[in-house]
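Researcher: We're teaching a course module on how sequence relates to structure. For the next exercise, students receive a sequence and then see the predicted structure as tokens, so they can try to spot secondary structure elements on their own. Here is the exercise chain.
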Amino acid sequence: MTTIAADDTVLRIERLIATPPERLFEFWTQPAQIVRWFGPDGCDIPSHDIDVRPGGAWRITMHSAEGGTRTVSGVYRLIDRPRKLVFTWGWDDDKGVRGYETEVTVTFAAAPGGTRLTVLQQHFETLEGRDRHNLGWSSSLNRLERVAK
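Model: And here is the predicted structure for the students to work with:
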């Protein structure tokens, strides 16, 4: 379920995923698991660098089925295993310069049938940017649901 807030700078997505929080947390923090689901349908991850610790940097390059390549990166601000992750998020432009930064908070709450996963991304610069991320996260979380079973 996606909740679009009254504030155009906030995106909130919730999913019930049939996997315990501890296991689902691994899909967000172990590189071998991240590459299995991260990015919209049709994307693969040709390169990544992930240092999962507070202050640790992460960088993921996605390659789409259409042939495009995009790189996103950030820094982990909080790691509360297996309950919460907070990290920054910024896309590189065509020249490799990192652009506007948002913050992503992911929570993992035990629930009947698995984990209530919540992705909260905030401080978007534009409504269009928020809406593009809604499409991207929704597709990525569909992939996560399939591989986390």
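Model: If you want an answer key for the exercise: The first strand starts at residue 2 and ends at 4. The helical segments are 21-29, 31-37, 127-147.
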